[in-house]
From TrEMBL:
Domain spans labelled EAL: 487-739
The name this protein goes by in its record: EAL domain-containing protein
CDD domains according to UniProt: EAL (cd01948), GGDEF (cd01949)
Record flagged with keyword Membrane: yes
InterPro entries: Cyclic-di-GMP_PDE-like, EAL_dom, EAL_sf, GGDEF_dom, Nucleotide_cyclase, Rev_trsase/Diguanyl_cyclase
Keyword field contains Transmembrane: yes
Membrane-spanning intervals of the chain: 21-39
Domain GGDEF: 343-476
NCBIfam families: GGDEF
Top-level lineage group: Bacteria
Record lineage: Bacteria, Pseudomonadati, Pseudomonadota, Gammaproteobacteria, Alteromonadales
Keywords: Membrane, Transmembrane, Transmembrane helix
Length: 739
């Protein structure tokens, strides 16, 4: 099979994938930067326009105030020049002739611009010349009354009439101050409109807006007097809030309102964003061209990486997966379906019978050709979703994730027959092969790929022991496989118990034989509750835990559970507890930091903790044992050498182990009263311990006579059913695990 057909199209090299991310992230960063620049530019435009509006506002307000002040001054000057004529009008009242009124009005219009008419208002607000001026408009009357009340005109505003707009100026009549009369002059407001228009800057809209009526527009650069005469112009509250400036005009009911033209805002936003996007597009284009150049440069490198990856994950001879890759695929499949009730999924282990004879008889080249042809034939027969691997020189493994369990034996038999019937005569005359095939069904209860391979190896060994060239299904009534299956069940139960906190702590008291006043001492023991609720003693699961690599997890659980139990028992602050450790845990570099962490977590005094290590493990892991003992002893923990005497090499290593106690193996204690050799041996070990400053503990003390004898020779502690049977002590619960 060609290498190019094996490489998948979606297999990307790491360098190319990183380059794509760099291009993408660079493009995003550039887009963010240019949009930020565009928004900053828009903000600068807006700030500049605001500064212009502030200047325009000040200019318009100053010109309005100057205009009104000049008008009032001009009216007062007119009164001084025509005082006699005005006095005559007041005296004549409604007897005044029209010619006299019109003559004075003509003079006023010649001296003051934009005058429409004038009138004289008495102290009651009535017009003295109403026969010529008519009755005042209602809003004019409102303004007159307000002026008479205040004594001066403070609320100037624009009045509408059928003839148009006007505004009124009320000045005290200077010819007769005692009478409290006012000169009423109506003006055409065109000059007010011209002032707004003259000060309007590009993209700005200026309006004269009533301050006492929300949103009412008198006129503006966008709304002329003629347009506003047709109907009152009102803006909504939302539109009013869009104005950048609203400044009241003193002495009037007006406020000057300025805003940017909506089309200006839209144009500025559009131009700024378009410029930003153009800059982004050009820059991104250059980055993309650079990426394409890099992509072409990396293409060959990617092919080389794929070839290297293929060689790393596949067998060079057959092109099948290598063992590590196959184990990874199998582990992933098991993890995906862990705990599920599975009806599909089978793994086969194919071991070529006596393949070494082929190499020896026909040469390694012929053997390699056989393996290559065989792998090709197997791949043709296997379904598309199957995974095949060459595990070793003469072993193949096949994972069939969609094969039903009931078809496992039949499919494996077909594979065996295909190997047996395959024609190898073109490689060497009379060359034929056979295979022993082990089959294992994946039911979702496996612990991992290691368990599967162990089971398959057991099945293949059994097939070969029966003569080879046969299929052996792992789940059968064979004694060897049943024993292995039982071990796997125990391992499965233990793994589940660790996950579900279905382990329990028991404790057994050690009796002090020489000093009964000492604090209570206990050895911590562990039990397992299986899924049926039955209690399993350590001899049922500890050997399997040690064999299949779970013993460290058990030890860690026991350590933490012991500390949790001590912390929970607040009524006992002195009892001492010894914890058994395996040699595997003893060699774990992280065990010291773990013990420190648990002591800190549960606030347990180290002086209340002891560890027991067996003689065999202490000797085989001497350096690790010494390092662990020394560091734990430094903080106050105690150590015991368990099962002492079970190995004769103990004496040569005892001096190197800085333990505090020697626990004499129970094999020497059970019949100590009837066996003189055991007595001599125990007495010797006890004297040796005393000479080295260590205390002794006798295990399996089951009779009063044994305890009496041990006490007579000075043994420090006795442990066994005679004094105390193991009792339930602790199990995890919700309140403890949450502590």
């Amino acid at each position: 099979m060609k290498l190019a057909n094996v490489i998948k199209d979606n297999d990307r090299s790491r360098a190319l994938a990183e380059s794509k991310w760099i291009v993408f992230l660079t493009s995003i960063m550039l887009l963010i930067l240019v949009i930020w620049g565009a928004l900053s530019s828009i903000q600068l435009h807006y700030n500049y326009q605001k500064s212009l509006m502030d200047s325009v506002t000040k200019s318009v307000l100053a010109e309005y105030q100057e205009h009104l002040t000049q008008l009032r001054l001009t009216i007062d000057q007119f009164q001084f020049r025509h005082a006699s004529a005005l006095a005559q009008l007041v005296l004549s009242g409604n007897q005044t002739s029209k010619d006299e009124y019109m003559e004075l009005l003509t003079q006023l219009r010649e001296e003051v611009d934009d005058v429409r008419l004038f009138a004289i208002v008495d102290s009651s607000g009535k017009g003295v010349l109403s026969q010529f001026t008519g009755e005042f408009l209602p809003d004019c009357r409102e303004e007159i009354d307000d002026t008479l009340l205040r004594g001066s005109q403070e609320n100037l505003f624009l009045h509408r009439s059928p003839n148009g707009f006007h505004y009124d100026l009320l000045q005290p009549l200077l010819v007769d101050k005692q009478a409290g009369l006012f000169l009423f002059v109506a003006f055409d407001p065109a000059v007010l409109e011209r002032i707004l228009t003259q000060h309007q800057l590009p993209y700005q809209q200026l309006f004269l807006m009533r301050s006492d009526q929300s949103g009412k527009i008198e006129f503006g650069t966008e709304i002329s007097l003629e347009k506003s005469h047709d109907q009152s112009i009102y803006m909504s509250g939302e539109e009013v809030h869009q104005f950048d400036f609203l400044k009241p005009i003193p002495g009037t009911r007006w406020q000057l309102a300025i805003r940017l033209a909506p089309e200006y805002n839209a144009r500025v936003y559009l131009e700024s964003i378009l410029q930003a996007l153009l800059l982004w597009g050009v820059t991104t284009g250059f980055v993309y061209l650079f990426y394409q150049a890099q992509r072409r440069r990396l293409y060959k490198q990617r092919i080389m990486e794929k070839e290297l990856s293929f060689k790393t994950s596949h067998d060079e001879l057959t092109g099948t997966m290598n063992r590590a890759t196959f184990e990874g695929q199998l582990a992933a499949f098991i993890a995906q379906h862990s705990g599920q009730l599975m009806m599909e999924g089978v793994v086969l282990l194919i071991d070529i019978d006596q393949f070494q004879l082929v190499n020896n008889s026909f040469g390694y080249s012929a053997g390699d050709s056989c393996l290559n042809l065989l792998s090709f034939a197997l791949r043709r027969q296997l379904p598309a979703q199957a995974k095949i691997s060459r595990l070793s020189s003469d072993e193949f493994a096949v994972m069939l994730p969609e094969l039903h369990h009931e078809l496992a034996h039949g499919f494996a038999e077909k594979v065996r027959q295909q190997i047996e019937q395959f024609d190898f005569t073109h490689i060497a005359p009379d060359l034929s092969l056979s295979a022993s095939v082990g089959a294992f069904v994946l039911d979702g209860q496996q612990l991992g790929s290691e368990e599967v391979f162990n089971a398959l190896a057991q099945a293949v060994r059994l097939a070969k022991s029966k003569g080879g060239n046969r299929v052996q299904l792992y789940h059968s009534d064979d004694v060897a496989l049943s024993q292995h299956a039982q071990e796997m069940n125990v391992v499965r139960e233990l793994r589940a118990a660790l996950n579900d906190n279905r382990l329990q702590l028991y404790r057994q008291r050690l009796r002090a034989l020489s000093d009964a006043s000492q604090a209570s001492r206990y050895e911590v023991l562990v039990r397992l509750i299986d899924h049926h609720g039955s209690l399993l003693t350590p001899d049922k699961f500890i050997p399997a835990a040690e064999k299949y690599g779970l013993i460290s997890q058990v030890d860690h659980w026991v350590i933490e559970a012991t500390f949790a139990a001590i912390a929970k028992d607040i009524g006992d602050s002195s009892s001492h507890y010894s914890i058994n450790l395996s040699g595997v845990t003893l060699g774990d570099k992280g065990i010291i930091s773990f013990v420190h962490a648990m002591l800190e977590k549960y606030q347990v005094a180290p002086q209340r903790i002891g560890f027991e290590i067996t003689e065999t493990y202490a000797i085989t892991h001497l350096s690790a044992a010494i390092a662990f003992i020394e560091q734990m002893t430094a903080i106050g923990c105690e150590f015991s050498l368990d099962d002492f005497g079970s190995g004769l090499s103990s004496f040569s290593y005892l001096q190197q182990l800085p333990v505090h106690n020697l626990k004499i193996d129970g094999v020497f204690i059970r019949n100590i009263c009837d066996n003189r050799l055991n007595q001599v041996f125990v007495e010797t070990m006890h004297r040796l311990a005393k000479e080295m400053g260590k205390k002794t503990v006798a295990e399996f003390v089951e009779t009063e006579s044994a305890q009496h004898y041990l006490s007579s020779i000075g043994v420090d502690y006795a442990q066994g059913y005679h004094h105390h049977k193991p009792e339930f002590w602790f199990e995890y619960s919700a309140d403890v695990t949450g502590s």
